[in-house]
Specification:
With 1458 residues, the chain is mainly beta. It contains 19 helices and 90 strands. Strands 86-87-88-1-90 form a five-stranded mixed beta sheet. It has a five-stranded mixed beta sheet with strand order 18-19-20-21-22. Strand 64 and strand 65 form a beta hairpin. Helix 6 packs antiparallel against helix 7 and helix 14 packs across helix 18.
Amino acid sequence: MQCYTELTPPTAVTHSLSLAFTSAQSNNLVVAKASLLQIFTTKAVSAELDKAQNAQLHSSRSNEHYDTRINDDDGLESSFLGDSILVKSDRSNYTKLVLVAEFSLAGTITGLARIKSPSSASGGEALLLALRDAKLSMVEWDPEKHSINTTSIHYYEQDDLQGSPWAAPISNYVNFLAADPGSRCAALKFGARSLAIIQFKSAEEDIDMGDWDEELDGPRPVKESSTTLINGTSSNEETPYSTSFVLRLPNLDPSLIHPVHLAFLHEYREPTFGILSSTTSPSSVLGRKDQLMYMVFTLDIQQKASTTILSVTGLPQDLFRVVALPAPIGGALLLGTNELIHIDQAGKSHGVGVNPFAKQATSFSLTDQSDLNLRLEGCEVDILSAENGELLMVLNDGRLVLITFRIDGRIVSGLSLRVISPEAGGAIIPSSVTTLSRLSKSCLFAGSECADSLVIGWTRKQVQAGRKKSRLQDASLDFDIDDEDMEDIDDDDDLYGEETAPTKQPSLAVASQSGKMGELVFRVHDRLVSIAPITDFTLGRNASFDEEEEKNQAGVTSDLSLVCAVGRGNAGSVAILNREIQPRVIGRFGFPEARGFWTMSAQKPIPKSLQGDKGATSMGADYEISAQFDKFMIVSKVDLDGYETSDVYALTGAGFEALTGTEFDPAAGFTIEAGTMGNHMRIIQVLKTAVHCYDGDFGLSQILPMLDEETGVEPRVNSASIADPFLLLVRDDSSIFIAKIFKNFELEELDKENAALSSTKWAAGCLYEDISGVFAPVRTDKGTKPGDNIAMFLLSKTGALHVYALPNLSKPVYVAEGLCFVPPILSANYAARRGTAKESIKEILVADLGDTTSSYPYLIIRHDNDDVTIYEPFRISSETAQELTASLHFQKLSNPTLARNLDEVEEDEDDEAQRRESQMRWCENVAGYKTVFLPGNSPSFILRSSKTLPKVIGLQGGGVRGMSSFHTEGCERGFIYADSKGIARVSQIPTGNSTYAELGMSLKKIPLGIDTHSISYHPPSGTFVVGCDSLEPFELPKEDDYHKEWQLEKDLTFKPTVERGVVKLINPSTWTVVDTIEMEPCETVMCVETINLEVSESTNERRHLIAVGTAITRGEDLPIKGRVFVYDVVTVIPEPGRPETDKRLKLVAKEDIPRGAVTALSEIGTQGLMLVAQGQKCMVRGLKEDGTLLPVAFMDMNCYVTTVRELKGTGLCLMADAVKGVWFTGYTEEPYRMMLFGKSSTKLEILTADFLPDGNELLIVISDSDGGIHVLQFDPEHPKSLQGHRLLHRTTFSAGAHPPTRTALLPRTLPANSDYLSQNAASNGVNGDAASYSPAPPSTLLFSSPTGALATLSPLSEPQYRRLSFLTGQLLSSLPHYAALNPKDYRAPVSTGAVGRFPPGVDAGMGRSIVDGALLARWNELGAGRRAEIAGRVGFAGVEEVRDVLREVLGTNGLAYL
């Protein structure tokens, strides 16, 4: 059987919602990415600071190709500010997103709604999730678990709710969720015409309003207390919701037969919704006009009754959405494809037509703005400023449109639209959006499924008339004013009252009027990187650099990269993925004796002559400036004889040179740790036997020996930690040594006041400067003095964590005994059962992880096998729990990354002891990240950006002995490390258009600015060929004798658009387009493949050529034609100054296909021919020397071939049809012919198909339109297969929210001692002789999906399958499942639709299923005891054996060449 593993999380944003979720005061954004729920909070960052940091980060990327216009706000500003001089700098803030938590759900999110919950534990609002097909979960934030808690679940998928027997299955309908703005109820429309109403308890009924006046209204009525019943339960129900009920829409009103959309309206006493519907089905309205009606109903939830308030009929047919608007606009806005219509509370309507079709499509009265020529399909609308009556609309090409309502008092008198110009930021969104959520008064979040999601802010450019001098600004200046500032001014006026200060009225009017008139300017504040949808992918070699660079990059560049075509429309890009960080090496040299590096910048001692008051201060300023770059580097060395020394070097631009003439003693021994103390005035070097202090010029100032004067023993230092002004040493006799540096720069040991400190055996420890106050014994708003906020973390030999607040050593402020059990939540009172298994812990480190926007402390635990466990500390804020012991908890974060095994790393034996000693290293700034580096066999960075959780990402190359950050003029924010082969490298993490933590992999994204959908790699030239489409207006053929009426349409101003194909050649050395070929008008590129074709019939020479299949569609009344082009990539003379342009595409052959499009291409057979899917035929064609493609064999197909695949060199082919299933065929060359072996059910809609060899078996894997992955097999000996004519159906597994649309069969890298290889050999060898077994090389299938998720399907051996499927069953019952969803049900095959009625083949599954790797990846979330218990129960020898099997199966370990 097989295991399905997700490699990357989904990145397409499908839904978003802004609410106060984690607490009553918080401002949270909830983002849904198909099956991933992310909770963000917002943080304001000064725009100046943000630009400065970005400039600093990207200063080193000048030699990389990158389109600066993407993030260029300055260019945008300067273009419209003209010469007006701003008095102040850009004082606006950028709103950044910071991730609070994320949850992977076993379901597909189809809607989000906010519900004000009076009883939530956090005080925040609740979140209602709608899931496919008709499930609802209500979740709240649980501050005690720092997670979400499900408070109610509702399920409407039962058969009796389906209605009539001829109704389609529930999944065929569009189901959507709407919530009442007053949080009294929510409605889920599902099925054809069912409405589920879920009612909630509101905090107070409307009658108890806060404006009860006792003088006027008499005494306030007493609220009835709940009567207690006999058995002690209260009569008031304690649930936050009441029972839900299902309404049939025709029962509300007989005309609600075909509902289109509904929304709850604002400002009504009872829950009231407006619904758009029709009495005729959408399919039968052709030729009819204005069939839609809009009705408003008020619900009486208690009586389950409703009242119709108003009804508007004769609405245009193309309306598709109802948007409820708050006061002062009120009512609802109806969106159509050609018009917008506003209907107020009284039923009065105002509409505007936005293109010439509005007049033809409807007789409804509309204001004419048809000259805008807008297409409103797929647009999104959100409120920009309700007071000003402004709404923002994002069109499906990403353009921004401002909708302005004219409001007279409380009455809307009209609306108008204005397209925002590109100069004012109208083009910052490249493609369509799926969701808009308002984050604050001047910014919103635009989530997209086909581009990066953006946080967009706006400012108003104020232009003031000279004579109206407002108290707000001087009229001679143009200012950018945030809406927030305008709001503050209004607030002040409300505060001081209107009657008392009548003189202020005119100025306020001016301010608000200019606020409305001021031109809006939009800019990007933040972005969530997305690689969705992945339309195609290929494997290709990394860029070929020049020789020197190639030599530098040797050993740290992967063999291949996964290159994907991602995005849609103008957001089309190429994404380059690698599993590990590939550093950009600036300098590389042999340094075999180096074992550790420490770089530092210390202040030089001030000369005596300058030590007066003035001199010291003026010199100090100079030292601060010069102290930015690192000055010195201490290196610990072990020479070939095993002799340990240390050396000091002075750092230069890009390298370093030995520093001589100082008091530094190289022979003093091996450096354990080094750094600066005393505000950079002292350099500290920790040796095994002593601590040396030097001044800024390496003059020796102090030596602290490790000698116990009473006993005479000299313990050796194992590890050390420095946090100015403290130093912590952990020694080999398990004792600790704590020292502090005083004002006179003398280092002195602190007395251990607590006897327990001296008597306890300590295993590890670290110091942490607590800037955020997470570990402060008492949390205050006031900042702490530097040096007062140092926390000391110690790990005892028994596995307990002790926290001390230095300098107080009398007693620990926090003790957690259970750290060695690595529980999911660690607290001071956590207690494990006796005999529970423990984890061995080698090292602990508390450090800030993050980027320039946000950082947060994490507790990082390193185990003996180099695996890492990461804990996030959080405080529970309540009146009772103010003590640190009660309020501080640690939550274990999911980390599926497993370290490399020792046997996989070829190392010298004598190095073993040395390599073990290298500690985790915190770096304050490497490429803008605060990060922790893990040296050893499995070198990794722990990276976290503000929008992700910490991810462990490996460093490309072998093991690492030592590393340090390295910040000099020639290598800004870089690092230096020595690998296990003795090579040292000064390098940087590439930034610019590269991200890491978002996917947990290295991702580089190159924008192309055109719709990109197919990509192929050409090995001989090392280039990539990309198939793209651009939209252009469609023209009818001019000279046509048959269609005289076509001449009438030649003057159309608003023409339809059609795609025109473009083929681009990309050179990966700079990732720029070096050649472009345009197709004919109306010709689209369908597929691009690299095929090894025979180019000469006489010499039988073979060459890799690019084959492109196209379709020519000139409208539905003309037949579709196709063409096949064959190109070669040839070398030409490059353009001056652009050496990468030395490649061009050259046409080798071209073949016109008179009937049908060319939809798929593949290599076939052994003679260099290709298989072409053209229309309803699949033909084998060969390239002739005259440039034609000669057909030699064919097979008739059904409807539309989506995929053709050949198992390389065997002639075995798969042909998948879009609606008629898959065919398994064979091709022979003597004579040329194709024959059908077997076929699947003819009712399958297949997106993609591929072969998967597994030992001696050949499996066929197909994925259908419901996201189901089916495994089929050809077996002519099975009695039910009709001699193999029907394929056997082995199993079906649901990919859920991520249906695979592209597949590739890739080689799988396995360790030599792999269970899969040895067990397959044992079971398949002749007479049990494993040596006689020669299987196909192991392989795996890589899937890509429209949500941006990548996944693999890997074969398992029989013993592996049995144990892992049993293990998933155990995990299912041991792990928490968010939103009360069932992972087993989520992965079960779809039981409705065609697949439910017609199985894919002859059922031969025997109840087996594919193993769900998403559950296995959560193995590390369990505590140590539970893991050991489950491992024994499932039949593993121990936890280590489970780990070995998971290493082989999970993650990207099977794709080591990436």
